[in-house]
Amino acid sequence: MEVRIRLQKAGKSATKAYNYRIVALPRKEGRDGRTLDILGYYDPAKKPAAFSLDKEKINAWVAKGAQMSDTVKSLMKKSK
Q1: 21-53: per-residue pLDDT in tens?
Q2: Residue 74 counted as domain residue
Q3: Could you tell me if residue 11 is inside a domain?
Q4: pTM of this structure
């Protein structure tokens, strides 16, 4: 099974103030599909943008063959 580490929308749609979960999910699942693991969060509405990553879990998923989205790669670089 191919796994992607990507963002999943959460939060209020009425105010367009979305925040995101960083999740591991099967590649064929949609953005809001069944998640395998929650790895952190990202809130771009705050200034500066707030985020938290569980690097150990992310590295474990990558070791199993999961691929990160471009946004998650960028957040990983910022967190170092």
Answers
A1: 999 999 887 767 788 999 999 988 888 888 999
A2: no
A3: yes
A4: 0.84
